[in-house]
Amino acid sequence: MNRMRDAYIVLAAGTLLLTALALHGAQQYDLKNLVLIMSTAVAGTPIPFKAYKALRMKTLSIELLITIAVVGALIIGEYVESAVVTFLFVFGAWLQARTLEKTRSAMQKLIASEPLRATVIRADGNVSIAVENIAIGDRIAIHRGEKVTVDGPIVLGLALIDESAITGVTESVRKSVNNVVYSGTFLESGYVEVIARCTSADTTSSKMIAMLEDAQETGTKTHWFLERFATAYTPSVVALSLLVYVFTGDIHMALTFLVIACPGALVIAGPVSLAAGLGNGARHGILIKDGETVENLAKVDVVLFTKAGILTTDSQGPAEARTDTQIAIDQVRSAGISKLYLLTEDSVETGRAMARAYGLDGVYAELSPERKVEQVTELIAQGHKVAIIGNGVHDAPALAAANVGVALGAANSIVSMGTADVVLLSNRLGQFSYAYLLARSTLRNMKQNTYFAMATVVLLLFGVLLGSVFLASGMLIHELSVLIVILNAVRLTCYRNPHHPDLAMIYASRKKAAQATQDI
Q: What is the pTM assigned to this prediction?
């Protein structure tokens, strides 16, 4: 609703500006000024209200600076400046909101994947209820073409399930009795009955949405520094604008300085990049806990692999080697991380043999859970940024001790989301190199935006003091700089790993080759 209202305001103010331009051509100057004042009123009315709300929170906002500048422009009769500045501000805000939606696409897809109703099997027949009313232990019926409404094991039936909403992998999975299904996934064919093992608030998809929301609210260290800087910077701008007027006597220059110095692009430089990077990760089945994790992950120089669930698959019988381990380790190396080690409870001889088999640089063997934590802590003390890839349940202490704890697999996702910094939901080790490269790209994008925003403000302020940048033109450049920052961040939503082939294609081709061999 707010977006539609803003669109109408932009349309009305823009129409009035064009009308004023036509009146100027017709030499109807008095009528032109009246229309410009009307345009200022239409576009500018929401601005002081937002400034007032910020003041109540003891914050000096960009809206306050714009309000002061516009009132000043009206007082000195600069109606063109007041109309253009207010129009550009509301148009820029509307355009930003539209563009930012692209960075939240993964969040919107997750929310859209959440089912609303479930069919519960009762003694007296099936009942359709809202998913929030599902209780632990309820038996849920799910038919072909329906979304899975709960997390839980299948107790009856067989189905082909699309889990891409959770894992980011498009290959459908065949599931039967005792296999676990997840809320938000889609039943392509078949029929199953599932026992709910948690309420709707605790399903994997609900936890994913909550984690992604929290992550977007939690910035990096650089972002928080800029936030504190902007808080002190804004009142400083007001003071400097007064000094400009005192020394030059030029009210127009002082008002222009006030508007141009607004740190709009600088304040959003970090959050918009972070939102885009986190959204890209979620779309590919990679959940990153917060902005600080992105920063840490981008700087990782040591990766520790635990044995459980990583170099071997969990099974009831003997451990089985993962088909993707060697490819994944090669990808991690080519991504730029050269120190790769194995952490294991096994003997030194067994650990060395496994490390050699997978091309790792060494092994830390015969480690109890406590010793794993000590080993991680020791590496961090040596100045390394350490990532450990393990099982979210069994390796929780070590994951918590590392700079970046990475848990593998949706099966343990609910526990992992509480203990790990990164969760690879597809249960594919190859996702780690993608997560690492995505974090580096996100951090690089944040720095690009920050440097660009700072350079733009500095150049514009010099232009104002030299008398070559004026209120309307400066506001246009300011809004364009904000838009450029957003568009640069939006590039992250389209980011793909440029160095490695899609692991899903590799696995699919291996499966086909294995099947062909069996057929022969």
A: 0.71
